[in-house]
Amino acid sequence: MEDEKAIAEGIQLILNNTGYTTWHAETLRMANQILQTQHVDLLLLDISLPDGNGITFAKNLNHPPKIVFISAIDDEQTIVDTFQFGSDDYITKPFRLPILLARVQAIIKRHRLGEQPSLTHLAHLKIDEVNQQVFNGNKEILFTPTEHRLFFYLYHNIGQILTREQLLAYLWDNHGEFVNDNTLTVTLRRVRHKIEQDTVLIETKRGIGYRLLPNEVKI
């Protein structure tokens, strides 16, 4: 959460374009509501917020996610204090967005490597997140670059409905190539053909969007 609108918008843009789902809270009260209703893996938290202190807020969380503090405060003791109670990183303002993204990705990767197996299963698929590979049994599924990005974008948001606009924005804006509506339709069809056998894995919500199902549906 971040109370400076321009900074928050920049952070959300780069994280969303990399495939992460984000929520923005301008106050600690809003942040607490999000934490109670959403699954949050990592919290980007400022210290000085309109309704309180971010460090105090983090210390009072019962089951805190990974926490990265972002603050203009560069006092050595403040930074040390945040690490002593379990924060994962501390980034001082001003900062560059690509550096923040790299540090966020490093924390998430360490978290996944330390607490989850390299291979996860989805129906008949085996997914290697570390090496960004997908297997049908022991045979690797070969995607084109666009198919690969689409599959892992859906996978990193598994269970969540993504609109066509979100998919187009991710495939186009984040990678500098032109992806139109027809290209998206064709890419979705090819990904489905490669990953689905007698199961539905990518569900179409007509007029809304698509989602990768956390549990397969038999057909």
Largest sheet: 4 strands, antiparallel
> What is the mean predicted local confidence, pLDDT?
85
Helix count equals: 8
Proportion of helical residues: 40-55%
Unreliable stretches: none
Please give the radius of gyration in angstroms: 19 Å
Number of strands: 11
Gap from first CA to last CA? 42 Å
Query: Approximately what portion of the residues adopt beta-strand conformation?
Result: 15-25%
Shape: elongated
How are the strands of the biggest sheet laid out side by side? 6-7-8-9
Category from helices, strands and their pairing: alpha+beta
Please explain how this structure is put together:
The chain is of the alpha+beta class and 219 residues long. Helices cover 43% and strands 22% of the residues. It is built from 8 helices and 11 strands. The protein has helices spanning 5-17, 28-37, 54-59, 76-84, 97-115, 145-156, 164-173, 181-195; strands spanning 42-45, 48-49, 52-53, 66-71, 89-92, 119-122, 125-128, 133-136, 139-140, 199-205, 209-218. A 4-stranded antiparallel beta sheet has the order 6-7-8-9, with no helix packed on it. The chain has a 3-stranded parallel beta sheet with strand order 1-4-5, with helices on both faces. It has a two-stranded antiparallel sheet with strand order 2-3. Strand 8 (133-136) and strand 9 form a beta hairpin. Helix 1 crosses helix 5 (97-115) and helix 6 packs across helix 8. The radius of gyration is 19 Å and the shape is elongated. The model has no long low-confidence stretch (mean pLDDT 85).
